[in-house]
Amino acid sequence: IADTNIPEKPLQNGVYLRTLSKKEYIASMMMNNAQYFHVQKNNLQKVIYYTSFAASIDSTLSGAHWNLHHYFYLVAHEIETEMIEKTKNIENAYSAQLMAMNMKAKEDIYTPKPPSPFDYQNKQRQARMIEPTNPFQNGLSSVMGNEKPGSTALPKQNNGTRNNNFSRMANELQFEMTQEIENMRRKYIPAIKEALARSDWHKAKAEELGIVLKFPEEFFIKQSKSIEKFKRKGEY
Question: What is the model's pTM?
Answer without folding.
Answer: 0.69
